[in-house]
TrEMBL record:
InterPro entries in the cross-refs: NAD(P)-bd_dom_sf, STEAP_metalloreductase
GO CC terms in record: plasma membrane
Xref: PANTHER family: DUDULIN-RELATED (PTHR14239), F420-DEPENDENT NADP REDUCTASE (PTHR14239:SF0)
Alphabetized GO MF terms: cupric reductase (NADH) activity; ferric-chelate reductase (NADPH) activity
Gene Ontology biological process: copper ion import
UniProt lineage: unclassified sequences, metagenomes, ecological metagenomes
Protein name: Pyrroline-5-carboxylate reductase catalytic N-terminal domain-containing protein
Coiled coil feature spans: none
Amino acid sequence: MGLETINGFELGEAAKLCDLAVLTVPYSSHETILKIVKEYLQGKILVDTTVPLQKEVTKVSLPKAGSAAVEAQNILGDDVTVIAALQNIGSHLLSSEDRIDAEVLISGNNEAALNLVTELVEELGLGSWHVGPLENSAAAEALTSILIAINKKYKRKSSGIKITSH
């Protein structure tokens, strides 16, 4: 992707100016950041990449809401369209020029927003699958702990997933 201009903004200002926001913060900051940007995201799309990792990162630990993405929807309200994606793709992979050999699970309740996020994911060179409503984001979030466990046990840098069908 060719970026001609990059500007930095304070969180609220950035949320106010965007059409679509991507939340990429540690789970410990998730709720705080959402409350800061809530008023500015009304009527917009939020792509939530958050995974609720705890101290023991190889053990699945989901929040009471069922997933971080559902938690985001509950905090932001119905006028923000939350789409969950990219939970299983490490930031070090996204910032690399190398091809990523994995696919992305995308969940949400708005078909147009799902399609838009799918296009953005494809621009990153990744395949993707719509995996149902936002509540299904719990599976992708939980899968991250499993992938981390695989990485640790088998001394891999970045395991990922691919969906196969016959």
